[in-house]
């Protein structure tokens, strides 16, 4: 199964913010386009648009006169603008006229050289003048949707002429489709730099801001990594977290509390059970000693001894994990020497030669004395139980913090050297042990930040209890 690559939260948020900005910009342009489509703005004057339509439908009759073809588009203009009027003139002064308009526009024609003009007949009424290229040549158009005057000569018309002459001399007409690209270019010139600046600011400032906001998360992650078995009751500080992450930290702290409570219950049960077993075991042992000597009575006493040893080891396990011990600066030579002296009679009675070699110099370490004593005692008893009751068992102390227990037995197969550290696991099911000795020694090594190591030797097998730095160290 392919593992999913972890993603950075700050870059996820940064990409989403940039994407949100892009979506908002797209939404803005969509609304703008929809608004333009709905209102259909006319970027040219109404009269100018009429001139453009007329230029597409003008024709010349056989007699040379001008005519405007009656198309649905022309009919729609007449319906939409009841006061519509227009005049079409060619270079030969041929005319086509429609509607009511000032007669002066017929008697005083505008020069064809005027490309575009506006005739004003009052505050709001006006007409447009423009020249257009048509299929029948260049024509002059005058058109308006306003009633400026009638055919009577008595109507006074005030005419104002505005002439726009482009510098290039080209066509000055403005159409909707030609203005849209220019408008889009103007918007792009205004909006794109803003988008680039905001995008760059988002890409630079957002990761920094989010990183600053998550500083507390990094510190707390380091705090969580520092939680050990002995400090399992510790809680993470929520004061540095954003409010959105506090529920997750609270849930983690709650889980730690439940684990600690469960472990304490388990330890109390283990200690109570082992303690309650000691009295009945002692009574049974006393009664077994009163039995006549026989093979069955000897076997019964061995079974009782094994049961008693399991009860003591369970108490030892509870003592190691209780965390109520006090570390002391102890010379390993003196501690291990005392253990060796106490166990020497049992080792010799089992048929072994017993040897203890202290370190040449003091081996002072900050340790939990009772825990190290339990570990070394269990290693010696394991060597007694699994070395065939012959040969030599040697205890050696090294000033570097190594306590070696060597024997001339078969040792532990390499494939089993991990499993033997599990509680109640036994290589030999017929052994009198309960499978807790090596587990106790392993826990003692971990408690002192050390290791329990196995190694084959020329004469047999060696188990090394390595003491690490505890508290102020050595």
Task: Give a verbal description of the structure.
With 474 residues, the protein is of the alpha+beta class. The protein has four domains: 9-39 and 180-213, no CATH class; 46-163, Beta-Lactamase (2-Layer Sandwich); 217-324, Helix Hairpins, CATH 1.10.287; 325-474, Heat Shock Protein 90, CATH 3.30.565.10. 47% of the residues lie in helices and 16% in strands. It has eleven helices and 14 strands. The strands form four sheets. The chain has a five-stranded antiparallel β-sheet, covered by helices on one side. β3 and β4 (95-98) form a beta hairpin. α7 (246-289) runs antiparallel to α8. The longest helix has 44 residues, at 246-289. 20% of the residues are buried. The model is unreliable at 152-159 and 169-174 (pLDDT under 50).
Write the layout of secondary structure elements.
Blueprint: H1 9-39, H2 46-57, E1 58-60, E2 66-68, H3 72-80, E3 85-89, E4 95-98, H4 104-107, E5 116-120, E6 126-134, E7 137-144, H5 176-213, H6 215-225, H7 246-289, H8 295-322, E8 328-331, H9 332-349, E9 353-357, E10 364-367, H10 369-386, E11 392-398, E12 402-407, H11 437-447, E13 451-456, E14 461-466
Parallel strand pairs: 9-11
Antiparallel strand pairs: 1-2, 3-4, 3-7, 5-6, 6-7, 8-10, 11-12, 12-14, 13-14
Protein name: histidine kinase
Organism: Rhizobium pisi
Enzyme class: transferase
Category by helix and strand content: alpha+beta
CATH fold-level topology of the largest domain:
Heat Shock Protein 90
Largest sheet report: 5 strands, antiparallel
Can you write the helix and strand succession as a string? HHEEHEEHEEEHHHHEHEEHEEHEE
Q: Provide the low-confidence segments as ranges.
A: 152-159, 169-174
Q: What's the number of extended β-strand segments?
A: 14
Give the averaged pLDDT, no decimals.
76
Looking at CATH, the homologous superfamily of the largest domain is: Histidine kinase-like ATPase, C-terminal domain
Through-space gap between termini: 47 Å
Q: Overall 3D geometry?
A: rod-shaped
Strand content: 15-25%
Count of discrete alpha- or pi-helical segments spanning 4 or more residues = 11
- Integer tally of domains: 4
Determine and state the CATH class of the largest domain: Alpha Beta
Rounded to the nearest angstrom, the radius of gyration is: 52 Å
Task: List the strand order in the largest sheet.
Answer: 4-3-7-6-5
State the helical fraction.
40-55%
Architecture (CATH level 2) name of the largest domain: 2-Layer Sandwich
